[in-house]
Design brief:
Layout: E1 9-13, H1 25-39, E2 43-48, E3 63-66, H2 71-81, E4 85-87, H3 92-104, H4 107-111, E5 114-115, H5 120-127, H6 129-138, E6 146-149, E7 163-167, E8 177-179, H7 182-195, E9 201-205, E10 211-219, E11 225-233, E12 246-248, H8 255-272, E13 277-285, E14 292-298, H9 303-312, H10 316-324, E15 351-357, E16 378-384, H11 387-396, H12 420-434, H13 444-452, H14 457-464, H15 468-477, E17 483-486, E18 500-504, E19 512-513, E20 516-517, E21 526-530, H16 541-556, E22 560-565, E23 580-583, H17 588-598, E24 602-604, H18 610-613, H19 616-621, E25 626-627, H20 631-638, H21 640-650, E26 657-660, H22 663-673, E27 677-681, E28 691-693, H23 696-704, E29 710-714, E30 720-729, E31 733-741, E32 754-756, H24 763-780, E33 783-793, E34 796-803, H25 810-817, H26 821-829, E35 848-854, E36 875-881, H27 884-894, E37 904-908, H28 914-926, E38 930-933, H29 935-943, E39 948-950, H30 963-968, E40 974-977, H31 986-997, E41 1002-1003, H32 1006-1018, H33 1027-1036
Parallel strand pairs: 1-2, 1-4, 2-3, 4-5, 18-23, 21-22, 21-24, 22-23, 24-25, 37-38, 37-40, 38-39, 40-41
Antiparallel strand pairs: 6-9, 7-8, 7-9, 10-11, 10-13, 11-12, 12-15, 13-14, 15-16, 17-18, 19-20, 26-29, 27-28, 27-29, 30-31, 30-33, 31-32, 32-35, 33-34, 35-36
Helix pairs in contact: 1-10, 5-6, 6-8, 14-15, 16-26, 22-23, 27-32, 28-32
Length: 1037
């Protein structure tokens, strides 16, 4: 059954911004699918709102639209492009829900567009809780006892607790939870119903403590079913699978029990009707009696699909795309092996473990207990010959910050309910390590035994009270070095040409030939690119985007691109992104071993965020050449003492500053500088542990959260903040993008909306900014990318910080200007001069682009949704238009915060903002809004001649509803609430929390309020324009 000839053009819907429960695995899936569809001759169209994705690069599809992923945004694109088919199964829950909305509204029928990959009936049977329950029962399988609820009145009075709530058509268990009492049920049900787009919730019997398994299954039109991978959750039922440590293949089932699971999975995929794609099916199994329950099914590529693909080497997204256009499994080659078809089930001769990465430290006050609603922000994967080897690789790949709150914190901190087999395996490692007392006692066999368990040089050194370097030297003295094996999806059963490697111990190196790696081509040699590791707040998909482009560019330059990373969700860890992929922890030990094996002509550390930079000195000390900016220049930018002296020599201003290691020293420095001060450590991303302090006691508190020498800066209040991305060749600097933050200084750049070009800068100010950046680039000797953050306060320009590496704005700036900044930086690192790059004289775009942050507060009840110096955003969206109001309004829509055109606006601001809010309130009244305010703000607004209704705070005595009551009852359409300068107050927190729960846009800064009102007043309707058309227009101008 060759591909369908009646289809010529296909539209893919992306998954939008990175959110908890839906991360960059869908960029990997979409990119893989686009590649094979274009190879097959299809014209491809992409709709996505996330600029940090590879799939939205202009070369990946014929037409790329960075538009809001809502009904209007996607329908507009479909109306313009008129594709033959829509493929929604590669864009997560977002794409699936949008497809169903487009069907329900008659858009696809009106435009004669076919839904492929999964039809509407299939999606309904899998996603509608009631239909799925009945479908599974008809197939002869059991589901948990449950009832479907569409309102509180549907809950049976005889309900026994605990129960699990599962909202329909949601991702990452969003809105769900475990209720142990009627009180908990009432609170959870209200939220669950509001989160389900169809207001349907499954209230099911609790299977807490049962073992949880997942099977990744693919089926074609001829009813061929392939079980790609089995995955076992170490955490039992009750913990969302995205928050659980998982292992593949499953470890604890007998063959008979596993075959029962396989048969059940095949029955479910057939019953639901998936016949041209992949599905993830989740099961619960009673550990003692073997009873089986089907929990749920995703009729699409999922987070687990990405894990299964990287665990087995089986290209699930590619196969799903091919099946959607008519192929069958036996007709699709497995590119990883080069010798087997997709109908050939993967076989593993190794073990894979996935460990989630959490960010509870970013959300003080949030509930850290795990449940059925996913909370992790990323994940790392480890591969080894044994379970413990893979487990320890995965857990050390998480790169935890000191003192971070996390499950599975240490080997002796195994959570309750874990299967005894896993517990025994981990206890054996603890016991083996406890028997080690001195490095001098260890001989070759001892080292080999410890390394095969998965223990790192650092683990063994810490046990012996010595350094990692000394432990490594002792190990090497005994001749114990890692071997590298292939991930080939066939366990060596057939010949395979895989370039995908992992390390283990005590075996022969699989792909060595003499002293050269097999497949080494004539050319300059290998370049090792260090990835960014697991997604986390502050270091996300933007850096993987940079690593992928680095691999692509170095390959174009004739080098062999060698990728090192441990994140299974990413495009960088796809099998064909690089010439060789090492799936390893980004730690000194593993990276040095890879470099010793590859003997690269250079190592690239500037694209993977802070993770590779921390390895730069060790690589340099080991004799490896670093391409691009030197570690010395990086240290010069990070060391405030030296950087301050550099700025003084250049006569460039920065805020007054000092450093301190002790609380008393910090307080003395703060009083010398003058309050408020910004307290922050060096070498951090995402504003980790940054605090704005207004008093001595706050400085002492901030010092308690930091380690080592801490920097104190005078905080510039009400300043305009700028972000600049530039390219340097060591002498000259090219300023590629000057961006303006919508929020004033004090809100982390990753959380602030960002505008390009900067609307508030005069031509003279822009020229001065560019001059300062050029001076800094030359003085630091940067080779490659440079990011500079500046602020304008009282007509003075200040340098806030300089990052001689890729920044999170690089994908946004590249797409807005049409300049591939990473490709240019790679050419500079390889030795080119700026003059050789053919860059436009003036890169300023004619259209306005806005990057808006997407914040995860809804996942962390108890955390205050207020913006500050520590980054909390998980993702971003981008919108482009002819003017700022239109672009900003579209970006807010894309971020899920559509601004209302009218209604009631609630305003409550701190004393320092009361004058500034008056013009904002005037504008709202002019737009037809009614105003409601708390006493202090209402008094100021009334004095300014505005009609305003007073409402009391929660803590104020009196009768009538409070502001929180109004928000909860849907009486407010827009909330403006700025916290006190010295921190959030009780009333402010309750107001912001109520707005968050009610899904009401809540703006916590004056500049954000002004931008929102401008957008409401002046945003214009525009037709969708593709990225390719925009870039062509920029180049033509």
């Amino acid at each position: 059954m060759p591909r369908r000839r009646d289809l010529r053009s296909i539209c893919l819907i992306g998954s939008g911004p990175i959110v908890i429960g839906q991360a960059c695995e869908f960029d990997y899936a979409g990119s893989q699918a686009l590649k094979v569809l274009r190879e097959d001759g299809f014209r491809t169209i992409v709709v996505n709102s996330n600029p940090a994705t590879i799939m939205t690069d202009p070369g990946f599809a014929d037409r790329t639209y960075l538009e809001p992923l809502d009904l209007d945004g996607v329908a507009d694109v479909l109306g313009r492009e008129r594709p033959d088919a829509l493929l929604p199964t590669l864009g997560g829950q977002t794409a699936l829900n949008l497809a169903m909305e487009l069907v329900a509204e008659g858009v696809l029928e009106a435009l004669d567009i076919e839904l492929i990959g999964a039809g509407p009936d299939v999606i309904r049977r899998a996603e509608d809780r009631e239909l799925f329950r009945e479908t599974v029962r008809l197939a002869g399988l059991k589901v948990p006892e449950s009832t479907i609820v569409t309102s509180a009145a549907d809950v049976p009075v005889e309900l026994s607790f605990p129960v699990i709530l599962r909202p329909a058509f949601t991702l990452g268990g969003h809105g769900g939870g475990t209720a142990r009492s009627w009180t908990e049920l009432e609170a959870l049900l209200d939220r669950a119903l509001s989160e389900s787009p169809v207001r349907q919730v499954l209230v099911e019997e609790s299977l807490l403590g049962w073992d949880e398994f997942e099977l990744e299954v693919i089926r074609d039109r001829r009813d061929n079913v392939v079980i790609v991978c089995s995955i076992e959750n170490l955490d039992p039922m009750g913990v969302h699978t995205g928050d659980s440590v998982t292992v593949a293949p499953q470890m604890t089932l007998s063959d008979e029990a596993y075959q029962e699971l396989r048969d059940a999975a095949a029955d479910v995929i057939r019953a639901v009707g998936v016949e041209c794609g992949g599905s993830n099916i989740q099961f619960a199994r009673h550990r003692e009696n073997g009873e089986l329950r089907v929990i749920e099914m995703n009729p699409r590529v999922s987070r687990s699909s990405a894990l299964a693909s990287k665990a087995t080497g089986y290209p699930i997204a590619k196969v799903a795309a091919k099946l959607a256009v008519g192929y069958t499994l036996d007709e699709i080659p497995n590119d990883l092996t080069g010798t087997t078809p997709a109908s050939f089930e993967p076989t593993l001769d190794y073990v894979v473990v996935k460990a989630p990465r959490f960010a509870f430290e970013k959300f003080p006050g949030a509930e850290t207990e795990l449940g059925t609603q996913m909370k992790s922000v990323g994940e790392a994967m480890g591969i080894g010959r044994t379970f413990t080897e893979a487990f320890l690789k995965a857990t050390r790949s998480r790169e935890l910050d000191g003192g971070a709150v996390t499950p599975w914190e240490a080997l002796d901190a195994v959570p309750a309910g874990v299967h005894p087999w896993f517990r025994r395996e981990l206890e054996a490692v603890v016991a083996a390590l406890a028997r080690v007392h001195s490095l001098d006692d260890l001989v070759a066999d001892d080292w080999l035994r410890l390394k095969r368990l998965g223990l790192s040089d650092a683990d063994i050194a810490a046990q012996c009270g010595t350094t990692e370097e000394l432990a490594r030297a002792k190990r090497r003295f005994w001749g114990v070095r890692p071997a590298f094996r292939r991930v080939d999806s066939c366990a060596g059963e057939v010949e395979a040409g895989s370039n995908y490697l992992y390390s283990t111990w005590g075996e022969a190196d699989e792909v060595m030939s003499g002293d050269r790696v097999q497949g080494h081509v004539t050319g300059p040699g290998p370049v090792v690119i260090l990835g960014s590791g697991p997604n986390r707040i502050g270091q996300g998909i933007e850096f993987d985007y940079c690593c992928v482009h680095a691999a692509k560019t170095f390959r174009e330059l004739g080098y062999e691109a060698v990728m090192v990373n441990c994140n299974p969700e990413t495009v960088s860890t796809d099998y064909d992104t690089s010439d060789r992929l090492y799936f390893e922890p980004l730690c000194v030990e593993e990276v040095l071993a890879i470099c010793d094996r590859e003997r690269p002509v250079g190592v690239v550390t500037q694209f993977g965020g802070q993770t590779p930079l921390k390895l730069a000195r060790a690589l340099e000390a080991a004799g490896h050449r670093l391409l691009g900016t030197s570690p010395e220049a990086i240290d010069l930018a990070e060391d405030r003492q030296r950087f301050g002296a550099l700025l003084d020599g250049l006569q460039i201003r920065c805020p007054d500053w000092s450093t301190a290691t002790e609380p008393d020293e910090a307080v003395a420095a703060a009083e010398r500088i003058g309050y408020p001060v910004l307290v922050r450590p060096s070498y951090v991303l995402g504003g980790r542990a940054m605090r704005i302090c207004y008093r001595a006691e706050e400085v002492r508190l901030a010092m308690g959260d930091a380690t080592g020498r801490v920097l104190l800066d005078r905080f510039l209040e009400q300043a305009l903040e700028l972000d600049v991305d530039a390219l340097c060749d060591g002498e000259d600097t090219y300023v590629a993008a000057v961006m303006q933050h919508v929020e004033e200084a004090g809100v982390h750049s990753g959380d602030s909306a960002c505008v390009l070009p900067a609307p508030a800068l005069s031509p003279l100010e822009r020229t001065y900014v560019e001059e300062v950046v050029r001076e800094l680039g030359a003085a630091l000797g940067v080779v490659g990318l440079l990011n500079v953050q500046l602020a304008i306060a009282d007509s003075e320009l200040y340098v806030l910080e300089v990052n001689p590496r890729a920044s999170r704005t690089v994908p946004f700036a590249s797409k807005a200007t049409g300049i591939n900044l990473v490709a240019a930086a790679c050419r500079l690192a390889a030795g080119a001069d700026l003059g050789e790059l053919d860059l436009p004289a003036d890169p300023t775009p004619t259209q306005v682009s806005v990057k808006a942050a997407v914040l995860p507060f809804a996942r962390f009840p108890g955390a205050d949704p207020v913006l500050g110096p520590e980054m909390r955003a998980t993702g971003e969206v981008m919108a482009t238009a002819a003017d700022f109001p239109t672009a900003f309004a579209k970006a807010e829509r894309a971020a899920g915060r559509a601004l209302p055109a009218g209604g009631t606006a609630f305003i409550s601001v701190c004393d320092t903002h009361k004058e500034a809010i008056v013009p904002v309130a005037h504008a709202l009244v002019g737009l037809g809004f009614d105003l409601v305010a708390t006493a202090g703000t209402a008094h100021v607004l009334a004095a300014a001649g505005l009609a305003v209704e007073y409402v009391r705070k929660v803590t104020e005595p009196g009768e009538g509803p409070t502001v929180v009551d109004l928000v909860r009852r849907g009486r407010c359409d827009l909330v403006f609430n700025t916290p006190q300068g010295s921190g959030a107050r009780t009333d402010g927190y309750l107001i912001r929390e109520a707005a968050l729960v009610a899904r009401v846009p809540c703006i916590t800064t004056i500049s954000g309020a002004a931008a929102a009102v401008e957008a409401i007043a002046h945003a214009q309707p525009e037709i969708s324009v593709s990225l390719q058309e925009r870039i062509s227009a920029v180049r033509a101008s």
